[in-house]
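Exercise 7. Given the encoded structure of a 134-residue chain, write a plausible sequence.
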């Protein structure tokens, strides 16, 4: 469904998907490569990777709308990230649940609003715009 592959695939499972909303899961484990340096003795998932996980989750909506994306023939480029907020640290053992809503789509440009939650509490949020390159 997504063109990403390990170690950069940040969505383990899609729990809900329709043309406007998607919920994805990332089980955060100590085996993640980024924990080697962020931070030794106090592992914290980088906020930018939380936003990337939301963006990858949003890709499931795009996958339903664009066949080339689903077939891994299209690339995705971030155009903007607005209102990014990081409220709580995400640690190994947490389950990151990404709730993403499509705000608008015009041709190959999509705008999404996302929230990442751990145990029902918002840990990060952002609005982001992406262009799908055919």
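Solution.
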């Amino acid at each position: 469904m997504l063109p990403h592959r390990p170690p950069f695939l940040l969505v383990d499972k899609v729990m809900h998907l329709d043309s406007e909303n998607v919920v994805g899961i990332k089980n955060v484990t100590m085996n993640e490569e980024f924990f080697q340096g962020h931070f030794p003795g106090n592992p914290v998932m980088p906020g930018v990777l939380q936003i990337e996980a939301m963006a990858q989750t949003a890709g499931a909506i795009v996958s339903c709308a664009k066949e080339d994306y689903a077939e891994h023939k299209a690339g995705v480029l971030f155009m903007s990230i607005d209102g990014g907020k990081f409220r709580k640290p995400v640690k190994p053992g947490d389950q990151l649940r990404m709730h993403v809503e499509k705000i608008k789509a015009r041709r190959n440009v999509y705008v999404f609003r996302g929230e990442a939650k751990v145990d029902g509490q918002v840990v990060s949020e952002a609005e982001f715009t992406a262009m799908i390159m055919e």
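Remark. The mean pLDDT is 91. Students should compare their own answers with the one above.
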